[in-house]
Amino acid sequence: MDRRRKDSLTGIPTADYFAALAQAARQELADQGQPLSVLFFDMNGMKLFNSLFGYEEGDRLLQAVAQMLCRRFGAERVCRVGQDHFAAFCGDADIDTLLPHLYQEAAALNGGRTLPIHVGIYRDVPEDVTPLAAVDRAKMACDMLAATYASGSRCFDTSLLAAADHRNYILEHLDQALSEGWIQAYFQPIIRSANGCICDEEALTRWIDPDKGLLSPAEFIPALEETGLIYKLDLYMVDQALAAMKKKAECGVHIVPVSVNISRADFAACDVVEEIERRVAAAGVRRDLLNVEITESAVTENPQYMRTQIDRLRAMGYKVWMDDFGSGYSSLDLLQTFDFDLIKFDMTFLRQFHTGPKSRIILAQLMKMALKLGVDTVVEGVETEEHVRFLRGIGCDKLQGMYFRRPIPLSEVIQRSRDQDDLRFENPLEADYYCAVGTANLSDPAFVDSKPTEAIRPFLHSVPMAILELRDGHTSLLRCNNAYGELLELRSGAALPELDICDVKLPRQPDAQMIAAAEQCRAEERWITVRHSKQHADGITLHSMLRRLAVNPVTDAVAVIVVVIAGL
Ligand code: C2E
Ligand code: MG
Ligand code: MG
Question: How far apart are CA 44 and CA 66, in angstroms?
Answer without folding.
Answer: 15
